[in-house]
């Protein structure tokens, strides 16, 4: 029995090492492969009036490809705009200065991210630059509420506030024929 004890101890030790290695792989995968000492990035800012559900560490994408992440979100005390700082991978240091930014959502209820659309300016964005062309988040719940309570389901030509409408002109079919055939 004494010859089996080292084998069992070795098997238990190997199992524990395998379990710890699996946890390490899971930790790396859940942090997108970085523990804070990832590759080099440069920061640019963008101002938005409505961020929606955008959060720090949300991806920054061009054409669906992640090129960075949201570094921080703050509020400008003077203009009361949301200021989003983007950390963009240094491999993409040739983005045009007239690049536009929009807060988009993956699917109907998916995660929010910042989508960039490169412009045509020959000068690139540099560290500390600001993206001026921005589009804020669209609030789906607010849009549905406006449609439901503003009379959006009325008939054509009907005034949403009063319910009264103009009588559409009688269709005599004469307008369907082009002038050169009359």
UniProtKB/TrEMBL annotation:
<feature type="compositionally biased region" description="Acidic residues">
    <location>
        <begin position="172"/>
        <end position="182"/>
    </location>
</feature>
<dbReference type="Pfam" id="PF02470">
    <property type="entry name" value="MlaD"/>
</dbReference>
<dbReference type="GO" id="GO:0005543">
    <property type="term" value="F:phospholipid binding"/>
</dbReference>
<dbReference type="InterPro" id="IPR003399">
    <property type="entry name" value="Mce/MlaD"/>
</dbReference>
<dbReference type="GO" id="GO:0005548">
    <property type="term" value="F:phospholipid transporter activity"/>
</dbReference>
<dbReference type="InterPro" id="IPR052336">
    <property type="entry name" value="MlaD_Phospholipid_Transporter"/>
</dbReference>
<protein>
    <submittedName>
        <fullName>Outer membrane lipid asymmetry maintenance protein MlaD</fullName>
    </submittedName>
</protein>
<feature type="domain" description="Mce/MlaD">
    <location>
        <begin position="41"/>
        <end position="119"/>
    </location>
</feature>
<dbReference type="InterPro" id="IPR030970">
    <property type="entry name" value="ABC_MlaD"/>
</dbReference>
<feature type="region of interest" description="Disordered">
    <location>
        <begin position="155"/>
        <end position="182"/>
    </location>
</feature>
